[in-house]
Design brief:
Length: 122
């Protein structure tokens, strides 16, 4: 069990992805760099996978070097956390403030990096 409240940093990205999702896997190096550059400044990331195969999910985590907390109910598009956030397409990063309030969503690459840098400079 992982508690979102206990996992919040100054800024937290809840990143919806899956091992079978090409665009998600293409975005993972950006997330790894973001985590490396900003974790010490207060960024936390929680990965929520829409996988259904635990072995493929764990293999993708290892291969892509995703060192932050990863969760999944292995229920594919029936992932309850994805339903709570009304996720329709992945990758889908949601940026939360320290209290868990949604600040922004669906930013990727340089746009995501710029937003995180802005938020952590306040």
């Amino acid at each position: 069990m992982v508690s979102l409240k206990e996992s919040l940093g100054k800024i937290t990205i809840v990143d919806f992805w899956a091992s079978w999702c090409g665009p998600c896997r293409a975005e993972n190096p950006n997330m790894v760099a973001l985590y490396k550059d900003f974790h010490s400044k207060g960024l936390n990331i929680i990965g929520v996978s829409l996988d259904k195969d635990a072995a493929k999910w764990k293999e993708a985590i290892a291969k892509d070097k995703l060192v932050w907390t990863q969760v999944s109910h292995l229920k594919y598009w029936d992932e309850p956390i994805a339903a709570q956030y009304q996720v329709q397409v992945i990758p889908a990063p949601f940026i939360l403030d320290a209290s868990g309030k949604l600040i922004a969503k669906d930013l990727k690459g340089e746009a995501l990096r710029a937003k995180i840098a802005e938020l952590l400079s306040k």
